[in-house]
Design a protein that fits this description.
Blueprint (H helix, E strand, L loop, with lengths): L1 E3 L5 H9 L6 E3 L3 H11 L6 E2 L14 E4 L4 H4 L13 H12 L3 E7 L6 H9 L10 E8 L10 E8 L11 E2 L7 E2 L3 H6 L18 E4 L2 E4 L15 H8 L17 H4 L51 H7 L12 H10 L3 H16 L2
Parallel strand pairs: 1-2, 1-4, 2-3, 4-5, 8-9
Antiparallel strand pairs: 5-7, 6-7, 10-11
Helix pairs in contact: 1-11
This protein binds S-adenosylmethionine.
Length: 365
């Protein structure tokens, strides 16, 4: 298979874990993310194209192309700039699918992608007179929590096939389980009861001193999951604010005197801002700014009225675990670069569930 817009390789990780696939190519323009991909899946740097996808011309023949272009191009539709190159990246995806002669493709994107003109264009490419006319497409709207990820993260997955349809991926977990389904995985299970225990108290703010060589450049890394259990230097006033927010609460629960002046005028919307997570639930969707509580519900769940409180954002290690990565995955880049890789990734358990259904089709055709 070939992974386009591979990032740190979350999607590749899930497909390889499924067991039927091997990677023969990947494309990723961000050098740190490409170094992370290489550290995990391409140690000799043989197959990663760490450059713009439009310059990826030496396309190998594969059975499957997977990938998810960056979602920013699809997000702010109202103010969308038609010249924004990110809006055109799905076209590159289509080009590589054609040139690779793949029998199937898996295109991942944000939930709202299904409401964009680009989505319609992708479906049109796979219709009668389109560039991918011999592909049939199926669209799945999947929640990573239903597939054993401790996170509610809804994604649009388009599966294209020249060899017949696939079955919908098999859900393994549910909010209210029935039959064989297990309950959604909670933060308590993965932070405190997992293979790597991530203690709530953290003082370290720096990644360890270490570097790898990647295509002639020195990149910080390769870090293990435990190395990423580092916090931020939150300002004292921020910590005082965080201390007032109980699990499930957010900025609306701050006392008046601690409200940010600019927020007082906005009494609606963005309820997740400055939110605290809950021990016995999965996380909300992790984004690239997970280390900034002002950007979402990213406060650590440890909080007791008058008792022990942990007044900080999730660490990078906690965010990676919430994204379904385990301690096999290595990470390269600065703290900010690694945060971007984590927030952008497809949770490997979700990718694995999709891989299962795709493999079944490929292996029986
Ligand atoms: C949503 S992330 C992909 C995450 C990845 N599928 C995973 O599971 O980890 C999109 C990636 O596309 C990369 N990208 C953006 N523009 C690109 C381009 N023109 N060529 C190649 N990669 C690009 C970004 O650097 C980013 O890492």
């Amino acid at each position: 298979m070939l992974d386009l817009f591979a990032g740190c390789g979350g999607m590749t990780r899930g497909f390889l874990d499924q067991g039927s696939f091997s990677s023969v190519g990947a494309v990723e323009i961000d050098r740190a993310a490409a170094a992370t991909y290489a550290a995990n899946f391409d140690p000799t740097g043989q197959h990663i194209h760490a450059n713009d996808i439009s310059e990826y011309t030496d396309v190998p023949r594969v059975d499957l192309v997977i990938g998810g272009p960056p979602c920013q191009g699809f997000s702010a539709l109202g103010k969308r700039d038609p010249a924004d190159v990110r809006n055109q990246l799905w076209r590159e995806f289509v080009r590589v699918v054609r040139e690779s002669d793949a029998r199937m493709f898996v295109f991942e994107n944000v939930d709202r992608f299904a409401k964009t003109p680009e989505f319609q264009l992708l479906l049109r490419a796979a219709s009668e007179d389109g560039e991918l006319a011999d592909f049939d497409t199926q669209v799945f709207r999947l929640n990573a929590a239903d597939f054993g990820t401790p996170q509610k993260r809804i994604r649009t997955i388009v599966v294209g096939s020249r060899i017949g349809p696939v079955e919908g991926p098999q859900q393994t977990h549910a909010k209210t389980p029935v039959g064989d389904l297990r309950r959604w995985i909670s933060l308590r299970e993965v932070f405190l009861e997992g293979a790597v225990v991530l203690q709530p108290r953290v003082r370290e703010t720096w990644l360890p001193e270490s570097a790898v060589q990647f295509q002639g450049h020195e990149i910080p890394g390769a870090f293990k999951l435990r190395d990423l259990h580092v916090t931020q230097n939150h300002a004292l006033i921020s910590e005082i604010r965080y201390a007032h927010i109980a699990p499930g609460q957010g900025r609306f629960d701050l006392p008046e005197k601690l409200q940010y002046p600019c927020w007082r005028r906005h009494t609606r919307g963005a309820g997740d801002v400055l939110g605290r997570l809950c021990w016995d639930e999965p996380s909300v969707t992790i984004r690239t700014a997970f280390f900034r509580p002002e950007k979402g519900r990213f406060l650590h769940p440890q909080w007791e009225n008058g008792g022990e409180q942990v007044n900080r954002a999730l660490t990078h290690a906690e965010a990676a675990v919430v994204q379904g990565f385990d301690d096999r995955h290595l990470w390269c880049g600065s703290k900010a670069e690694i945060a971007r890789q984590i927030g952008n990734a497809v949770p490997p358990p979700l990718a694995r569930a999709v891989a299962e259904t795709v493999a079944r089709r490929l292996l029986t055709s």
